Here is the input.
Amino acid sequence: MDVADIAIAFDGTSKRYRNGTLALREVTWSIPVGARACLLGPNGSGKTTSIRLLQGALTPTTGWVSLLGHEVNGPQYADARRRCGIVPQNAGMYADLTTGEYLELARRLYRRGDVARATEAFGLGEHRDKRLAQLSGGFQRRVIVAAALLSEPEVLLLDEPTVGLDPLAAREVHEYLRAAMKGRTTLLCTHNLAEAEALCDDVVILRAGQVLLHEPLDALRERERPRTRLVARQPAEELAGRARALGYDASVQDGAVIAFIDAHADAPELLRALLREGIDVYECRPLSATLEELFLEAVGR
Amino acid sequence: MSASSIRSLLWKEIRQIGRNRTAMLTAALLPFIILFLAPIQLLVAMHFGGAQGIQQLRDSPLPGFADVTDPSQLLVQVFYPLLLVVGGLLLPSLTTTYAIVTERERRSLELLISLPVSVGEILAAKLLAVLAVTAVIGLPYVSIVLTLLLVLGIAGPATIPALLAPFIAAVMCSIGISLLLTLLARDFRTANNLSGAFVVPVLFLTVATLGVVGGPARTYVLAAVLLALGAAATYAALRWITIERYLE
Here is the structure.
């Protein structure tokens, strides 16, 4: 892949903090231009450190980090940084700056953008003259997202964009993000696996500062054993026993039977056989592994 | 570092400092007392009882005071420089502490670094804002007193730079030390206490320098000592402490 096609890259990057904590251990991974990737991992896995390295707020101990083809804190980095919008994790808000002033500051620093349009687009008109700290959590997050998108950036770095929000406010922010992510390279750092699943196509999983897995979500799903959920009028144990007697791998889970078969290829034959044997199957549904299951499996590996 | 980014951040800093009533009240009241009221009081005191003060100074073991022979010299070479140093040390320390440590306390530094700015630009803007506030508040008082000294014939034109040098050096020294202490402190209160505490040893150093170095060069030597101290503190703050501490 050409360097121009890489939006975000870590190459042999380590970060050791002053207290001795090794937050990243020689990680190497990259995201191509236009990809929407989520960065997952348990607490302390190095997600926020990765974002801060991309921001240029921290310096790698070894290796390098690049944004839009330019090494972070290198000569061209400032230009690359202005083409990148960042939504920080649970940031504190200024008690002495208004929404309008903060967006104006963002516009000046990005050197482009239309504050009036952003205010309108994010429904912040009524709150333009309110101090940031006086806004509700949902509106504060809207201001942050508005500032990140003000300059129409090519890359979006989202660090836990909905953490601490109530479900309604989180859904609102999701709507904004879903629209904002179209056509933009996005790295979403989150604990919320449903959020990652809804917004991203690729997955990077970090654990203890190392990349555990990096692949498209679909490929990850394809690697999983196909599963089909079966429910019958008879007890699940009986259904599972019959399925096993017919040569299928099956187990009981939450009152239903999970048969490890490809629903499209194998389910009709299995259903015919079960019905012939007097088992009244009334539900047969292919199961798709959720990101949560894939994540837990990867982290548990 | 980009001048345009620093300008934008400076705009933000000055707005924020201007809106903090405590910081502004302290920043306005302290220099009024130290840089205006106290020198005027000294002028009056010199007029009535300066000779007694000179005798006490000449009796001290510090050799630099031996050449202080009249009340006007006592004021211009010892007491007023001392007040200028006290004012120069106190005036920017609170503003520096406020400008830096509140970003940590409110966790707003995360918000700021999410915008396209470097940590160096953030610090530069904060320190420039402190300098601007100090200049706007402190310099008018200093100018009034210097004018009075000139008009009353207590000081000549050559004395003006000799008096401004320790004031400017004290301001720079205070900003450097406050930066170091603020980056070390965990909260505003600790940072403020530490910043207040550093004044005492620096004042001892000031009196010692004034007392050891005699002649018209004494205030320039004092300025050099204060600048060196401020530069060492700034170097230590940026080299070893760094604002990364706030983000770890």
Observations:
- The interface with chain A takes residues 2, 4-5, 8-9, 11-12, 15-16, 19-20, 106-111, 113-119, 244-245, 247-248 of chain B (CB under 8 Å).
- Residues 104 and 246 of chain B are 6 Å apart (CA to CA).
